[in-house]
Amino acid sequence: MELKPNLTPVLTDAAPLTRSRLGVSSGLSPYSSPKGATFPHHGPFLSIPRKKTGILDDFRSSGWLDAMKCSSPTRNKVSKDLNHGIGSHDAAYSTWLLKFPSALASFDQITNCAKGKKIALFLDYDGTLSPIVDNPDCAFMSDNMRAAVKKVAEYFPTAIISGRRRDKVYEFVGLSDLYYAGSHGMDIIGPPRQSISDDHPDSDKKGLGELNLFQPAAEFLPMIDEVRRLLKECTKDIEGATVENNKFCASVHYRNVDEENWHIVGQRVYDVLKGYPRLRLTHGRMVLEVRPVIDWDKGKAVTFLLESLGLGNRDDVLTIYVGDDRTDEDAFKVLREANKGCGILVSPSPKESNAVYSLRDPSEVILFILIYFVCFFFCRWTASESDR
Ligand SMILES: O=P(O)(O)OC[C@H]1O[C@H](O[C@H]2O[C@H](CO)[C@@H](O)[C@H](O)[C@H]2O)[C@H](O)[C@@H](O)[C@@H]1O
């Protein structure tokens, strides 16, 4: 997916002419905060508490250490749960399922909602398409998952929305006929234009028109590069800490750091950020992520893609978003609030969420994709046959 600058302009919000050419009309803007770049409060994102002087508090007292501990079950927590017995975990999970029913067991509800609608599928990568593993470079998806996603994308607009760098997630997924949003939606690309053909089974794919690339945080790139280098330097003596280049985000992983040293990781990241008021800190599963303060997240990326596809502001579209991470909550929330579709949370344990349904793990995600999308395909086929 090499982009030629003249064919695929980098679009920023400062290009209203180009945006209108794309048919993106809702005023969706990464800089829409009325007071400009502030620290937006997006659902589960934690903003860094600031003193009036602009100087950050101590990392421990800020509540960030607690957030780091809650971000994913630790080895201690897992063994504690096991000691309490599988029964008690199962009981809690069963109770939780009453609130977030399994998408696999909700066939009638979901297919009823889908009747007569166009379907768009959004998929998170880590923890959804691939299992969570200790080494982020080895989070491979299975061939079965790849085959399932490939099949779906042949018939329904399908996008991968990841916190990872776009080229990295593309390398993992390896499918060209998809939309990719990397860096938590700050780096969006559609498939090569030749694949948006007139005879594509889903003519809505043509709605993308000239849109190939959208990078609302492009101006932050040098700053993020600089910060990533500083983060690498200041964490290099902490065993197990790694800094991942996610292009518009710098991600500091602490999954492999001894729990006793997590506060050191946090404090160092926090100290680096003191010098960068235009960056903010969010956290995912055992990862601290530094990103621009722009008002943009996975939820905004979903809205943007739907609008670009000509599927925004329509009542006959069902959007399904499957994700496991707190950053996916922004997308779940957008769908819930706009009544545009449903979020499906992938989680093996109870969690609060803006999703509507749940799946336990990536193996259930494959089943969900295969069962539902075969059904959606046949429903559509039947409908078009009877139209003849
Ligand atoms: O939005 P996603 O596609 O879910 O990406 C979120 C982060 O995923 C990766 O980190 C997570 O998965 C790793 C591999 O299983 C795991 O080792 C790590 O602890 C998790 O946080 C990725 O490495 C990050 O860059 C993404 O932001």
UniProtKB/TrEMBL annotation:
GO MF annotation list: trehalose-phosphatase activity
Reaction equations catalysed: alpha,alpha-trehalose 6-phosphate + H2O = alpha,alpha-trehalose + phosphate
Keyword Nucleotidyltransferase: no
Regions crossing the membrane: 365-383
Top enzyme class: hydrolase
Entry's EC annotation: 3.1.3.12
InterPro entries: HAD-like_sf, HAD-SF_hydro_IIB, HAD_sf, OTSB-like, Trehalose_PPase
Pfam families, sorted: Trehalose_PPase
GO biological process: trehalose biosynthetic process
Pathway assigned to this chain's UniProt record: Glycan biosynthesis; trehalose biosynthesis
Keywords: Hydrolase, Membrane, Stress response, Transmembrane, Transmembrane helix
Cofactor: a divalent metal cation
PANTHER family named in the record: TREHALOSE 6-PHOSPHATE PHOSPHATASE
Function: Removes the phosphate from trehalose 6-phosphate to produce free trehalose. Trehalose accumulation in plant may improve abiotic stress tolerance.
Similarity-based family: Belongs to the trehalose phosphatase family.
Stated name of the protein: Trehalose 6-phosphate phosphatase
Upper lineage: Eukaryota, Viridiplantae, Streptophyta, Embryophyta, Tracheophyta
